[in-house]
Amino acid sequence: MKTEYINLANYNRGGGIYVFHGGKQKNDLPVSNDCYMAAYIAHGSGMLKIGNDNISVSENDVFLVRPYAEYRFMPEDGLRRIDIYFCFFTFDIISDAYRNFNRQFGEFADFCDADNKPYLHAVDTDVKEIRDIYIRMIDEYMSALPGSNEILKGYLLTVITKILRNTRSRDFKRIYSKDRTVDETIRYINHHMYSKVSLNSIASHMHLSPSFICRRFKQYTGLTTSQFINFLRVNKIKDILQNTDKPVKAVPEMFNCNVEYLKKVFKRETGMTMQEYWEKYNYKNLG
To answer: 226 near 199, Cβ under 8 Å?
Structure first.
């Protein structure tokens, strides 16, 4: 398979940094950059192939990638694309902080060693600190206002610092419940939130009967799996409408389920249409 090469000089405005919100589809080519990259999984789940590793990725995962590493993001089966916030940057952008990063974070020194893996993997905090910085970075880059590049440099150093902190404290197997069956059910639903997830698909994955999972889940959460799936999707839609600039009409289409049904569920749970919710709560409308 051919490889797509990204030359940063062809994209940035001379400041050594390029930020954008993009999507990766299953048939997209592998990519290699002539610069560093920090990538944030914004919406969806799937796989990252990089070097000899195949990494399962989901929302709020974030990766720091060395120049010339070949990588390929792919959405999981059933999803059209996986949305990613990308930041490409030259070494000059981080040169002043490079020594401090090496001194304070052993993970960064290992990352810079060409004999080690060409990436660092972290998970955002529960309050989405890194995600929110990416959104501001994209807004700032698109504004092209005087001084934007200096602001972007400051944002980027903050993002890298938080990535390095969270490679130490990350827990890719977070516990949601004291019951193992319920915990695994919630993991599965979280990972397949955008797909056609159902009680039967959960039961098939876990090799348990649907009735057993249903009873256990209701006992520990007070909800059926269907109610929990709707709850999770509505909360995700609210988060997207509040904190991103994604067009409202494109939001329900991100989910591989009946769009009209999803709109009805959202209206029932919030008392508002998605457009009304966006108009009231989107961060750009609160100023």
So the answer is: yes
Of 175, 200, 204, the closest CA to residue 190 belongs to 175
- Taking residue 7's Cβ as centre, other Cβ atoms within 10 Å add up to 10
Q: What is the pLDDT of residue 238?
A: 92
pTM of the model: 0.80
Report whether 276 contacts 161 (CB < 8 A). Answer: no
Look up residue 192 and give its DSSP letter: T
3-state secondary structure of 121: strand
Token pair of 85 as six digits: 């916030």
| Cα dihedral across residues 183, 186, 187, 188: positive or negative | positive
Identify whether the C-beta of residue 41 lies closer than 8 Å to the C-beta of residue 61. Answer: yes
pLDDT 10s digits, 109-166: 888 888 888 999 999 988 899 999 999 999 999 988 999 999 999 999 999 999 998 8
Residues 6+ apart with CB under 8 A from 214: 199, 224, 225
If asked whether residues 9 and 136 sit together in one domain, one would say: yes
Which residues on neighbouring strands pair with residue 46, listed in sequence order? Answer: 57, 75
* Residue 263 sits in the same domain as residue 219: yes
Q: Which of 144, 169, 194 is the last residue of a domain?
A: 169
DSSP 8-state secondary structure symbol assigned to residue 209: -
Rounded Cα distance, 287 and 284, in Å: 6
For the chain, how far is it from start to end, CA to CA, in angstroms?
48
